[in-house]
Design a protein that fits this description.
Blueprint (H helix, E strand, L loop, with lengths): L1 H31 L13 H14 L4 E8 L5 E7 L9 E7 L7 H14 L12 E6 L4 H9 L52 H15 L3 E16 L11 H19 L4 E4 H5 L6 H8 L3 E8 L17 H22 L39
Parallel strand pairs: 3-4, 3-5, 5-6, 5-7
Antiparallel strand pairs: 1-2, 2-4
Helix pairs in contact: 3-9, 5-8, 6-9
Bound molecules: 2-acetamido-2-deoxy-beta-D-glucopyranose.
Amino acid sequence: MWKALHAIIWLAAIAGPLAEVEARVSRRQVRHRSPPHLGLDKYMSYEDIMQYLEQLSRVYSDRLELHDVGRTFEKRELRIAKISNGIEPSRKKVIFMDAALHAREWTTPITALYVIHQLVVESRENAYLLANTDWIILPLANPDGYEYSRNTNYWWRNTRTPNTNNCYGTNLNRNFGLGWGEGLPIFRDPCNENYAGTGPFSEVEARVVRDIMHKLVDEKVGFMYLSLHTANRSIFYPWVNEPSPIHNNHEHEEIAQYAAQKILWSTGTIIKPSQGYKYGGRIGGTSVDYAFYMGFPLSFVFEMSGMGKNGVEYRFYPPEQYIRPLVQESWIGIEAMVKKAIEKYPSSRPLHIPVNHKDAVNAAPSNRGFFGNIYEKFTSIFD
Ligand SMILES: *[C@@H]1O[C@H](CO)[C@@H](O)[C@H](O)[C@H]1NC(C)=O
């Protein structure tokens, strides 16, 4: 009896302080690598996003490099994050992701930051995503439009460059140089939110994305392009501007199906995979077609869900309490797509590079479909 009591007192005396020491040690380890807080509970401004990236890169300078690769019409930075596992500097294939080409799709930049967080901070858990791949992420591809959408007109979708007729802005996902201007007459209307610009790559934001694509393809490391949009709940792949399927359509389909399954199992959200063209007909000048044409063997648009946990469709602006679940759901899809893509492209498999990939660089606008091919359908399928 006394012995047992003694033992208990002894245990309490020793175990208490020991546990405290352990807690202190692990707190110190955390403090050693204390990342900035990514709340996922509010929409972030351009400034918030830039600041978050800077703080994160200071803490994880061995894994995360920032580069300012262009300046917008209103002089905001176009900032990319280059992420590696910080171990081998060897030439790895590269995943290129962008977000918010369309200004009003507010959950996409914060999702891109969450992907960066997963790769950089949760790097142990996600080591396999960086073992043979590096990532380049442009989390805010249209900062001028994004700020205008936040502060002035939440419905805003385009850049903020002035057009004729006192109208503003170009739709970046019509501004790429493959099939530029093809599809619908409104793509030539400078006052329409589908305006494709004065010419292919008239916008610095599109040129920056193009130049990253070219560089990666030229270095033969361009592996997968992924553009984040909302809120169609689908995964699109090329062609958007042609009815014919691409040569590895089945591969795209399989990857998209796999991600859709994962999301369905974890949240119940239905994501539909499809060739882009099948949804709404011909749309020229998209980034997803351009990336594939230039030589990325895999190219996707992920149209994330804009539906709240309460089942209400909020499209572009879910109330802030729904940001976190939507971002986390999207991460499940992105991780699944990349996991499957990596499986399909082991290091031994060469990345297919078309021979004439430079043909489209400054592809002249063609008029095919401009007058003859008028769709009666709702036209903003490519949110
Ligand atoms: C996605 O786009 C297609 C084609 O325009 C449309 O039929 C469908 O309703 C859209 N889905 C959502 C969730 O917006």
